[in-house]
Design a protein that fits this description.
Elements lengths: L1 E12 L2 H7 L1 H22 L3 E6 L2 E6 L2 H18 L11 E13 L2 E3 L1 H12 L5 E4 H7 L6 E8 L8 E7 L5 H7 L8 E4 L3 E2 L7 H16 L5 E2 L2 H4 L9 H8 L3 E10 L2 E10 L4 E11 L3 H15 L6 H8 L6 H14 L4 H17 L4 H18 L5 H14 L4 H13 L3 H14 L4 H13 L3 H14 L5 H12 L3 H21 L5 H13 L2 H14 L4 H14 L2 H11 L5 H6 L13 H12 L1
Parallel strand pairs: 4-6, 9-11, 9-12, 10-12
Antiparallel strand pairs: 1-3, 1-4, 2-3, 4-5, 6-8, 7-8, 12-13, 13-14
Length: 616
């Protein structure tokens, strides 16, 4: 049984039975004409696959959420144009629902909650309109020229949990759905939280100001009455000097929250202000000069102040969620933030250091679910890439602790998915990946590692979607762009691949400059330059990486890839022969679909090496 995470579009004709009663032949002809002249070309253009036709409806699958929504909009706009001059009682209109969810694939058909939710979203869409889930809204973000209206959490028929529904607002000609587009999404409920400025005079304190910003965004995102710009979009403005009005215009928001953080000893000073971008008036401002132990109370007060200023009425469950802190121990919290920053560097030394930070957080607060998930993530990476002697069942036990402490923690579901994937239990892993992305579509770890799982199995179209997401969520992530370049090359998209390789090289160089003792960005930059075709830089950077960390298996593997991409077959094979005795089973499994090795696959020495591995 195959499972995968996919974008599902469900559509049907509004009032089909009534239309058939009025004019059966004419209705059938009109519906078929729309399908052949409009719907099917739109599906092909956006890379969709028709799963099945259901009478007056249809079910379509896309590997890209953005493409699914773009296709839905094209269909609705085209249908609206086709209705010009048609009497009101004979117009063909579609309702469309789009969801991102886990599905079971069997005989070309798809089943499961992901499909069921898409069908229920279609049922609550306006005639001529599109309804999407929160995960779809977050994935699309600002990539399309669209707006989203928050319809709140809704109980959908035969769906166990409430679903957060958004209506897609777009310019079209059909009067019925045009009424919905007149409702502004920015209005009085949209806000961006700009990255708080670190005023401590110590660059090493960036982890704290960034962590505070992320937590405020997370808190505000729990309130259905607010439209909060996601973290990935927000952090793109970090360090940029721009006018508030320009930022608000670019993001289509009305309010901007900005602030600064200064920590000194056991004290913290936080300044925050909310600005109405329309008038540039300061709606609210405050300064908190308190003990560091008050940090959680300060976060809650800022969130409540914004809610009060915007006169948003919170539901009881939202109040509880806002006041539920992951830990009440500020020292544990700071260790967790440090660990998270180290863990994303993905080298053996930094992963080990991150694990120590998470372990210290648990020592200070044994009920800190996020820290358990952090340890599991570190152990998974050490296990698969560095062949560390960490029994996989112990890693899974760590994720179980995190889930027992907080069953709705996205990080815990992602950590378990990663461990299950590395235990070769992908069907189970996909369920946890889907739940993590449902709980928090903007969780870097869920997007990044799900993309790895897809890439390793050669599902490059889907991998690109999630690598793009992880690259946008964490602008210091230089790994995703380099793997995007490889995925694009595998799909025969060299121009796009070179663009991502250039982005990866730029990010990796920046990271290498900021962390001169870390070999990881150095060997990633080398691979990016090889993918671009810059031989001199590629060789120079990989030589430097090997000198910095000659025993690191990822450095050595990327050295193989650099020389393979450059066509240095003998050197690539020589390095591969030396690497294999130290490679983990996961790394060896990566060889199958990594296009960086394509130039050496036909070499008899490579074939012999792979045959020897298969016999072990």
């Amino acid at each position: 049984m195959e499972r995968r995470l996919t974008a599902i579009l469900a559509a049907d004709v509004v009032g089909y039975s009534r239309l058939m009663g009025v004019d059966e032949a004419g209705t059938l002809a009109a519906v078929n004409r729309h399908r052949s002249e409009l719907v099917e070309p739109a599906i092909v253009q956006h890379g969709g696959r028709v799963v099945k036709l259901l009478g007056d409806g249809l079910l379509i699958e896309f590997s890209s959420v953005v493409n699914a929504v773009a296709c839905a909009v094209d269909i609705q706009r085209g249908v609206a144009r086709g209705n010009e001059g048609v009497p009101e009682n004979r117009r063909i209109r579609f309702r469309i629902g789009v969801n991102l969810g886990d599905v079971i694939v069997e005989g070309g058909d798809i089943f499961g909650d992901g499909v069921n939710v898409a069908a229920r979203l279609e049922a609550v869409a306006d005639p001529g309109g599109i309804a999407v889930s929160a995960s779809v809204c977050d994935h699309v973000g600002t990539r399309l020229d669209l707006r989203f209206e928050d319809r709140g959490r809704q109980a959908l028929k035969n769906i166990e949990k409430q679903v957060h529904v958004y209506a897609v607002l777009f310019d079209h000609l059909d009067d019925t759905s045009a009424e919905a587009s007149e409702t502004p999404t920015a209005g009085d409920r949209s806000i961006v939280v700009l990255p708080f400025t670190n005023m401590s005079g110590d660059p090493d304190q960036e982890y704290f100001s960034d962590g505070l910003t992320e937590d405020i965004i997370t808190d505000l995102s729990k309130i259905s009455g607010l439209l909060v710009t996601p973290r990935n979009t927000t952090f793109a403005y970090k360090g940029r000097s721009m006018k508030i009005g320009q930022i608000a215009c670019e993001l289509s928001v009305r309010y901007v929250l900005q602030g600064s953080v200064r920590t000194s000893g056991g004290r913290v000073r936080i300044s925050a202000q909310m600005i109405d971008a329309c008038s540039e008036d300061h709606m609210w401002a405050d300064r908190y000069d308190r003990d560091l132990t008050d940090i959680f109370a300060i976060q809650d007060e800022i969130a409540h102040a914004i809610v009060g200023q915007l006169k948003v009425k919170m539901r009881p469950e939202e109040v509880r969620a806002l006041e539920s802190d992951p830990t009440t121990n500020v020292e544990a919290y700071t260790y967790y933030l440090r660990g998270r920053k180290f863990a994303r560097t993905m080298t053996m030394s930094y992963l080990t250091l991150a694990r120590r930070m998470f372990a210290k957080a648990i020592e200070l607060d044994p009920d800190y679910a996020r820290a358990y998930a952090g340890i599991a993530d570190c152990d998974s990476a050490l296990y698969i890439w560095y062949a560390a002697e960490l029994p996989i069942h112990e890693i899974l036990e760590m994720t179980s602790k995190a889930l027992a402490l907080d069953p709705d923690l996205a990080e815990a579901h992602a950590a378990r998915a990663i461990a299950l994937h590395h235990d070769d239990r992908d069907d189970e892993a996909d369920t946890y990946f889907a739940r993590a992305l449902e709980l928090d579509p903007n969780l870097f770890e869920a997007n990044f590692h799900y993309a790895h799982r897809l890439f390793k199995r050669g599902q490059f179209d889907a991998a690109i979607l999630y690598f793009e997401r992880s690259a946008s969520l964490y602008t210091d992530d230089y790994v995703s762009p380099v793997l995007l370049a490889a995925a694009c090359r595998s799909l025969g998209r060299p121009v796009e691949g070179r663009r991502w390789a250039s982005e990866g090289a730029a990010r990796a160089e920046r990271a290498a400059e900021q962390n001169p003792g870390n070999a990881a960005p150095v060997h990633r930059a080398a691979l990016a330059y090889a993918q671009i075709g810059d031989r001199a830089r590629a060789v120079s950077w990989i030589t430097r990486a090997l000198a910095m960390d000659p025993h690191d298996v990822i450095t050595r593997y990327n050295a193989v890839c650099v020389h393979a991409v450059l066509g240095d077959i003998d050197r690539a094979i020589e390095l591969l022969e030396k690497l294999l005795p130290n490679s983990s089973f996961y790394q060896i499994g990566w060889f199958d679909n990594d296009s960086d090795l394509d130039n050496i696959r036909a070499d008899p020495r490579f074939i012999t090496l792979m045959q020897a591995i298969a016999q072990q």
